[in-house]
Amino acid sequence: MDKIKDRLKNVKSIINSINPNAKLVVVSKFFPEENILEVLNEGHNIFGESKAQELRDKYENLKNKKIEWHFIGSIQTNKIKYIVPICDLIHSVYREKEMKEIDKRAKENGKIQQILLEVNVSGEESKSGININSVKNLLNSSLKFENIRVVGLMTMAPLTENEEIIRSTFKKLKDLKEELKDEYKDLKELSMGMSNDFKIALEEGATIVRIGSKIFGKRNY
Ligand SMILES: *Cc1c(COP(=O)(O)O)cnc(C)c1O
């Protein structure tokens, strides 16, 4: 059970046992292209990156492969022009000025950019994302941008070993989505769960999980 192939299989079987419809984003940030190729060889082609430059480089070098790229990292407004042409989904949007720039670049590229709003459920100072009480306002703001579509919410659990705290974080986001989904029909996705907590996230309703180290091994930052 040491190889990428085996670890990927293992992760997929856990996902299947909880929610077979959930989407797996394999987080390849800081891992080399040869690791991505191993995963592609297993028939999985959805990857997440967190840095615009790394995303661009990998995109260019793997251009001949059919890959669905997701952007999951913190957004620098001046890098949005590189992200939009490449990515199917941007998970980490939480400021109106980012929406405005994404909308502009999406228009230039003749696409409707799907995005998620990143929510700071736990309210930790160190975390990015919008306060949970402001999500509705930001959703309203998003409606004026014709070339973006908010298709769901994303969060990261607080760094803790306490499973109940992690679980309640995910549950709060799920409850919020349920509350908003009648008014915002496109709000379908819940991107939550990483290597250490994706089982809990799936149990609490995640539709997308973002998993890196459990498949590729330890990451060297
Ligand atoms: C790095 C990262 C992940 C994956 O983390 P692992 O612990 O390696 O699974 C998921 N989501 C975001 C936003 C990340 O930055």
From TrEMBL:
Keyword hit for Repeat: no
Listed InterPro entries: Ala_racemase_N, PLP-binding_barrel, PyrdxlP_homeostasis
Alphabetical list of SUPFAM superfamilies matching this protein: PLP-binding barrel
Molecular-function annotations in GO: pyridoxal phosphate binding
Domain Alanine racemase N-terminal stretches: 9-218
Record has Glycoprotein as a keyword: no
PROSITE patterns: UPF0001
Cofactor dependency: pyridoxal 5'-phosphate
Function recorded in the entry: Pyridoxal 5'-phosphate (PLP)-binding protein, which is involved in PLP homeostasis.
Family membership: Belongs to the pyridoxal phosphate-binding protein YggS/PROSC family.
Classification via PANTHER family: PROLINE SYNTHETASE CO-TRANSCRIBED BACTERIAL HOMOLOG PROTEIN, PYRIDOXAL PHOSPHATE HOMEOSTASIS PROTEIN
NCBIfam families: YggS family pyridoxal phosphate-dependent enzyme
HAMAP family for the chain: PLP_homeostasis
Protein's recorded name: Pyridoxal phosphate homeostasis protein
Source organism of this protein record: Geotoga petraea
